[in-house]
Amino acid sequence: MMKRRRFKQSLSLKDRLASFAMDARRRAGELPPGPVKDDLLRKARQADMATHLDEWVNSPGLQPPTE
Q: Is residue 46 domain-resident?
């Protein structure tokens, strides 16, 4: 059986997503309008959304649903 390679992330998920979004926006700014630019901007928005969801899930005020 193969063992999984595991390693500790040096940056938090929030930092990695923010870095990815910033880099994607920078690269999209260098491109002419078109599908490649639109795809990079879409991925940057998804990374921002993932950051907000991670903040919400890990917030101390999150309460379980009540019936």
A: yes
Instruction: Look up residue 2 and give its two tokens.
Output: 């193969």
CA 19 to chain centre: 8
Residue 17 forms part of a structural domain: yes
Q: Is the dihedral of CA 7, 5, 20, 50 positive or negative?
A: negative
Half-sphere exposure of 61 (CA within 13 A, CB side): 2
Summarised one tens digit per residue, pLDDT across range 11-61 is 988 999 999 999 999 999 999 999 999 999 999 999 999 999 888 888 888
User: Is residue 41 situated within a structural domain?
Assistant: yes
Is the residue at 61 inside a domain? no
